[in-house]
Amino acid sequence: MDKQRDFVLRTIEERGVKFVRLWFTDVVGTLKSVAIAPAEVEGAFSEGLGFDGSAIEGLTRSYESDLLAHPDPTTFQILPWRGEIDPTARMFCDITTPDGEPAVADPRHVLKRALAKAGDAGFTFYTHPEIEFYLLKSSSYGPDGPEPVDSAGYFDNVPGGTAHDFRRRSVRMLEDLGISVEYSHHEGGPGQNEIDLRYADALTTADNIMTFRTVIKEVAIEQGVYATFMPKPLSGQPGSGMHTHMSLFEGETNAFYEEGAQYQLSTVGRQFIAGLLRHANEIAAVTNQFVNSYKRLWGGDEAPSFVCWGHNNRSALIRVPLYKPSKGQSSRVEYRALDSAANPYLAYALILAAGLKGIEEGYELPPEAEDNVWSLTDGERRALGYAPLPASLDHAVEYMEESELVAETLGEQVFSYVLLNKRKEWQEYRAQVTPFELKRNLEML
């Protein structure tokens, strides 16, 4: 760690860095940032930077508001969009109380705790997210909703289109920040794009997702458009998901791989999927944390609506992708409910906890879904045991309230804050009179 710190201090001096931004997130997953002068960095490393945690969503109770942000030197990067004028760098922080204890409501710590538990069982957790978002002409919208920058579709090549330049610039910027990109392409909706980040351990991935959202927003501003990670910004168009491929490794070995097993999927892999299926509804208020998230889950297209798994079945909640014969290490499962607006630290902590629970308790994996689950009738789905995902945020909160797994993984304070916050959002939403109701009922009734 001392070597890392020396490297950071040396780089700040050599590159003439004028500001260092310390980043962390609140419980909802909003990025928080405080800029310090280069001269303050050494002190921040040794003592942390004090701030009032009660002003940040869900971080502390008001009577214990003093917190310290400790920059993690391994996350130091120069921010490419700041250019050469006043070069600016950033580091993610771990949040502690004044007596040095980890702050119980720091989402990064919640994930670290879950990863440590996996580590005790001999596992490292790797994730690879496919992040979808919409590019709109602006953040304002008329009676027909927001206006996308183009009307292209899946994998379309749009000559001279905004999205091309946008993706090229974003990918270059992400690479400059040390974030490897695997693919980038136009998605199914007008103005919808997808950029997939390369596999990394879950903590690095969560940090990368937070950086990714900032990069996408910055590039959009630079190009005179607006980027949104809202799960379902346009009626009748696909929502924005964050399908995540995941695997557990034991040392250098992929614990999900077993040669000769069905789909080359080991017992550990099958139990992990069984854990995800059993606890999917309990973790939904975090993996799909907004009222709008359920418009995506129940809006058709490629969002999953039912709790089931399948081999290469895009209508299932969990997909076991095609196995490449020469690549045993690439065995993985894909969780398809997550949307791009989730807090990645909390979402990955809960997904991991659900999977580990399946392994600990030896859950049995139910039969796979071979049909297109959406084309079955309700009766057929019931007979096959495919329970629906929560239909609304309200339903998701009811499941979460009863969940020991979620309470234990998030810790008491984050658990109660998420419940409080989501109940409030649902109450405010429920009190709305929407354009849908006015259009449908005002003249008729």
From TrEMBL:
User: What GO molecular function terms would the record report?
Assistant: ligase activity
Q: What is the lineage of its organism?
A: Bacteria, Bacillati, Actinomycetota, Actinomycetes, Micrococcales
Q: Which residues form the GS beta-grasp domain?
A: 15-100
Q: What is the similarity comment for this entry?
A: Belongs to the glutamine synthetase family.
Record PROSITE patterns? GLNA_ATP, GS_BETA_GRASP, GS_CATALYTIC
Q: Which UniProt keywords apply?
A: ATP-binding, Ligase, Magnesium, Metal-binding, Nucleotide-binding
Q: Which PANTHER family does the record match to this protein?
A: GAMMA-GLUTAMYLPOLYAMINE SYNTHETASE GLNA2 (PTHR43785:SF11), GAMMA-GLUTAMYLPUTRESCINE SYNTHETASE (PTHR43785)
Q: Where is the GS catalytic domain?
A: 107-445
- Give the top-level enzyme category: ligase
Question: What's this protein's name?
Answer: Glutamine synthetase family protein
**InterPro entries, A to Z:** Gln_synt_N, Gln_synt_N_sf, Gln_synth/guanido_kin_cat_dom, Gln_synth_cat_dom, Gln_synth_gly_rich_site
